[in-house]
Design a protein that fits this description.
Length: 71
């Protein structure tokens, strides 16, 4: 029986990273760490909880979202 698509894809990535030179693994780790830190900084400093701070209940939040979408 054939392996599922997900198993074959996971094997492809596993084998690719296993056969990768050591310097390339370090570069990928640096890229991943920078990406995670960048996303955390964006989340903490740039994405404000506007709806939670400015509206008291879900119906007011829903009305505001609908107004903004249909504007």
């Amino acid at each position: 029986m054939k392996d599922s698509f997900l198993k074959r894809a996971a094997g492809l990535y596993r084998d690719g990273f296993r056969d990768m030179p050591a310097y390339a693994r370090k570069l990928w780790m640096i890229i991943i760490i920078k990406l995670v830190l960048l996303l955390l900084v964006f989340r903490l400093f740039l994405m404000d909880d506007f709806l939670g701070k400015n509206f008291d209940n879900d119906s007011d939040r829903a009305k505001h979202v609908i107004e903004e979408l249909t504007r």
